[in-house]
Amino acid sequence: MATSSRVDPLSAHSPREEGARERRIGEHIFIWCAWAVAAFFWGAYMTTLGHIVAALATPTPIAVGLGWWAYIAIIAFVALAAAMIYGMIQSSRREHRLDRAAESKTAALYER
């Protein structure tokens, strides 16, 4: 009696992790639909954003007041990004060897 073992023809060409499985057709359809919806959303968003920026560039009585708020929002965003980058740089330059001593002293304070 011969025993036959099923061999996956793709296993020799592409190593798979244990427990990996092929996607079902419904999962493929969902992923393609999600990508299509995301592409439509971002396309519509960028088009609308382009029209808003173009409207801010042309001085009309309605858009004049809105332009200052847009500039303030952009300046605030840049300032916040600069502060975050500065904090990340300062954090990376900090000495981490003192962390254990600080944590043990904090734990001692909590126990007291």
Rounded mean pLDDT score: 75
How many domains is the backbone divided into?
2
What is the rounded Rg?
A: 29 Å
Strand tally, please? 0
Q: Order of SSEs, N→C?
A: HHH
Spans of at least 5 consecutive residues whose pLDDT stays below 50 are none
State the separation between the terminal residues, measured CA to CA.
Answer: 76 Å
Helix content: 55-70%
Q: What is the number of helices?
A: 3
Query: What does the main sheet amount to?
Result: none
Strand content: under 5%
Instruction: Label the structural class.
Output: mainly alpha
Overall description:
With 112 residues, this protein is mostly helical. It folds into two domains: 21-58; 61-112. It is built from three helices and no strands.
Keywords:
112 residues; mainly alpha
Briefly characterize the structure.
The protein has 112 residues and is an all-alpha fold. It has helices at residues 25-57, 63-93, 99-111.
Please render the helix and strand layout as text.
Layout: H1 25-57, H2 63-93, H3 99-111
